[in-house]
UniProtKB/TrEMBL annotation:
Keywords: Repeat, TPR repeat. It comes from Biomphalaria glabrata. SMART domains: TPR. This is Tetratricopeptide repeat protein 4-like. The keyword Repeat applies. GO terms for molecular function: Hsp70 protein binding; Hsp90 protein binding. It comes from the Eukaryota. One of its GO terms (cellular component) is nucleus. The keyword Chaperone does not apply. CDD domains: CTWD_Cns1. Belongs to the TTC4 family. InterPro entries: Csn1/TTC4_wheel, TPR-like_helical_dom_sf, TPR_rpt. Pfam families: Wheel. Residues 281-383 form the Cns1/TTC4 wheel domain.
């Protein structure tokens, strides 16, 4: 990855160049003397050309690959300063582009992006070079899966050169990867205006058309499903209204026409996700919650038929053959000792419910409001100390 280097004076630059040249001459001279001495005392050098080339790679003048994870030798630092300290911004940008291309070939895309970015920040006046830098960075971003960033670079590349073919093609692929099929088609058409026979773009345009049709088909299905659900909700609400049941979200002005879509409270808030529904015989089934404030406990009845009475459920939950709940250590909650109430929040009153009445009868009480699609009732033990304290807090 390119590093920012401290500025060098002309004298320091001259001395560095002279040192590098001198080092290179000494390197070659030493190898020549060593070769002559070796020839006198030892058998002929049998090294291959590849082995000699590998040795030369260790000299800064011939190095082609650098391990950026390790500190750079002083000679390499100096060479980089000479390379990137050109006062010509175009020359600097071009150097960064070359380095970026080398890293791109090695699939080191993040380092390549850093090089292209440095080249872009040089702000060179060459529009063609700027377009290339953006297009190349888009390619590196694309291979990293950064399709949005890649697409933005394609847009900038075309600002410098509107007909930059690689940027247009890359932009079309980015749109396709992001499932923006309409945009992909538009970018494909822009590419085909330049190269009408481009096979890659022709195939991509076909795939984009197919993707667009699939999205439109899914949107039509979703819209149809939403219309169906809306119709079912309206039907359900009509049944509830015909029962004379009041739902909290129905409390709107008399002058305002009732909109069933306002009845979002029909979505149940209980953990099971159960919702009020109508069976094949037209009977409503509600999720119901029982509160036991004495112990801060609750019970959920997932499916309470509107025609069933409360006592049937109490007998099933607190009958003599049923193990009492863990919180009822005194075993005082039984089907015959429990009393049922519902709360009217606005009046701050409790209303008593006959255990032998049906759920529908309770819900039809003129003061009952269904909240969050889940009717709720308060249960406590008759003549208990807690019941007396509870009733004292309310107006019964």
């Amino acid at each position: 990855m390119p590093r920012s280097q401290p500025s060098m004076s002309e004298e320091e630059r001259r001395q560095l160049i002279e040192k590098l040249n001198s080092d290179l001459e000494d390197f070659v001279a030493e190898r020549s003397i060593a070769a002559r001495n070796k020839k006198k005392t030892e058998p002929e050098d049998t090294r291959t050309i590849d082995e000699i080339a590998e040795e030369l790679k260790n000299h800064p003048a011939f190095m082609t690959e650098i391990d950026w994870s390790k500190p750079l030798p002083p000679e390499i630092e100096g060479l980089m300063q000479l390379k990137y300290e050109s006062e010509n911004p175009t020359a600097r940008a071009d150097s960064y582009r070359d380095d970026g291309n080398e890293q791109f070939k090695l699939k080191k895309y993040k380092i390549a992006i850093a090089n292209y970015t440095e080249g872009i920040t040089c702000r060179c006046p060459d529009a063609e070079l700027n377009a290339i830098l953006y297009a190349n960075r888009a390619a590196a971003q694309f291979y990293l899966g950064n399709f949005r960033s890649a697409f933005n670079d394609c847009i900038f590349a075309r600002k410098f050169k509107a007909d930059h073919m690689k940027a247009i093609v890359r932009g079309a692929h980015c749109c396709y990867k992001m499932s923006k099929y309409t945009d992909a088609i538009r970018w494909c058409d822009a590419a085909l205006m330049i190269d009408p026979e481009n096979k890659e773009i022709l195939e991509l345009r076909v795939k984009s058309e197919q993707g667009k049709k699939a999205v439109e088909r899914d949107e039509r299905k979703q819209a149809a499903q939403e219309r169906k659900e809306e119709a079912e909700e309206k039907k359900l609400l009509q049944i509830i209204l015909m029962r004379g049941i009041q739902v909290a979200s129905m409390k709107v002005s008399k002058d305002v026409k009732f909109d069933p879509l306002l009845l979002t409270a029909l979505e149940s808030h209980n953990p099971t996700g159960a919702k009020v529904h109508v069976d094949g015989e037209g009977k409503l089934h509600w999720p119901v919650i029982f509160f036991y404030p004495e112990y801060a406990e609750t019970d959920f009845i997932h499916d309470f038929n509107e025609e069933h009475c409360f006592y049937d459920h109490l007998a099933h939950m607190f009958g003599p053959e049923v193990e009492p709940p863990s919180w009822d250590e005194e075993h005082k909650y039984t089907a015959d000792t429990i009393e049922i109430y519902f709360e009217h929040k606005e009046d701050e009153k409790l209303y008593k419910v006959d255990p032998h009445s049906s759920l529908l009868q309770a819900l039809q009480h003129q003061k009952y409001l269904v909240y969050a699609g889940t009717p709720g009732f308060i249960l406590c033990v008759r003549d208990s100390r807690f019941q007396k304290e509870l009733l004292n807090r309310y107006k019964l």
